[in-house]
Design goal:
- It is built from 12 helices and 10 strands.
- It has 2 domains: 203 residues, Spore Coat Polysaccharide Biosynthesis Protein SpsA, Chain A, CATH 3.90.550; 86 residues, no CATH class.
- Strands 1, 2, 3, 4, 5, 6, 7, 8, 9 and 10 form a 10-stranded mixed beta sheet that branches.
- By secondary structure, the protein is of the alpha/beta class.
- The radius of gyration is 19 Å and the shape is globular.
- Helices cover 42% and strands 19% of the residues.
- A hairpin with a 5-residue loop joins strand 6 and strand 7.
């Protein structure tokens, strides 16, 4: 399979970049090309890095594109240059040496895939190994309800078969914060199936720079950010489904209404404190993936009673 590995580099990622690139270039299968989209990374000269890592560089720092739209550019680049598959990685993460070989083995036979995650800190110290397996996630995702309340398909652990999904229109609205969740949701809405492969690992970095995090308890910043992520996600899904006259829009509208009600309550400091206490008291039980700890008022009431 003609494969492209794509990462986006940006201001603030410089201290993690060498680790990321080294893990990519020490893959035990070298049958892939590497694309770096530079969105303002302050490595002043990529010449030596390019020689070392054989990068294809595209400067998008003056493009005016949002982070979501830049990922859309990676898809466009791959399709325009005849790639059959695209692998994504975040520039602050790093990857097991078999990630590409696992993709080459399985991606030709599926629509898209997502691999295992282990969390690490800013000093590369492991926090938790094989997080997704411990969460007991599904081996496959194929329905909207499986990705409605949370996400397990990240931009650093996913790969897409362009021969299967290349003809599906993937719009990238400017106000999309969780682009990984958005892409996976659109694909399952169009009948595509995502397959979990536990053999390869993305080392997903935790720190102050990563507000989403993984299995971290909720705080005020993450609560407000998570609510805005879900609101944007659901609002854009509503527009997408309405344009297609898809009756599943009612399901998403209900979720959007729940988040709107939550946002109204977040102006009340005492409510915020109660919400955080309730969610964090049950966090290990309710956490099923990114954004699963941002719940509507009715779900919160259920946990209050436990």
């Amino acid at each position: 399979m003609k494969l492209l590995f794509a990462i986006v580099v940006y201001e603030g990622v410089e201290s993690f970049l060498d680790k990321c690139l080294a893990s990519i270039c020490h893959q035990n299968d070298d049958q892939f090309d590497l694309l770096v989209l530079n969105d303002g990374c302050k490595v002043s000269d990529f010449t030596e890095v390019s020689k070392k890592y054989a990068l294809q560089l595209v400067d998008v720092s003056e493009s005016g594109l949002t982070p979501a739209q830049i990922r859309g550019k990676a898809f466009e680049f791959a399709l325009q240059h005849g790639y059959e598959g695209i692998v994504f990685g975040d520039a602050d993460d790093y990857f097991s040496e078999n990630r590409i070989s696992v993709v080459q083995k399985h991606l030709p036979f599926c629509d898209f895939m997502f691999n295992e995650l282990s969390t690490c800190d800013v000093n590369d110290q492991l926090i938790e190994e094989r997080v997704l397996s411990h969460l007991g996630i599904l081996d496959k995702v194929s329905r909207l309800d499986e990705l409605l309340d949370c996400n397990v398909v990240g931009m650093s652990n996913s790969a897409f078969n362009l021969c299967k999904i290349g003809k599906i229109e993937l719009p990238f609205p400017p106000k999309i914060y969780a682009v990984d969740w958005w892409i996976a949701s659109l694909l399952v809405l169009n009948g595509m199936v995502g397959t979990f492969e536990a053999d390869a690992i993305t080392y997903y970095r935790q720190g102050d720079h990563n507000l989403a995090g993984m299995r971290r308890q909720l705080d005020v910043d993450k609560l407000f950010f998570g609510a805005s992520v879900k609101k944007a996600h659901y609002a854009n899904l509503v527009d997408y489904l309405k344009n297609r006259n898809d009756n599943r829009v009612k399901i998403v509208e209900n979720r959007l209404n729940e988040i709107n009600q939550l946002e109204k309550e977040l102006s009340n400091a005492s409510f915020v404190e109660k919400y955080l206490n309730t969610v964090n008291a049950h966090h290990s039980a309710l956490y099923k993936g990114w954004w699963s700890d941002i719940m509507g008022l009715e779900d919160m009431k259920i946990y209050e009673l436990l």
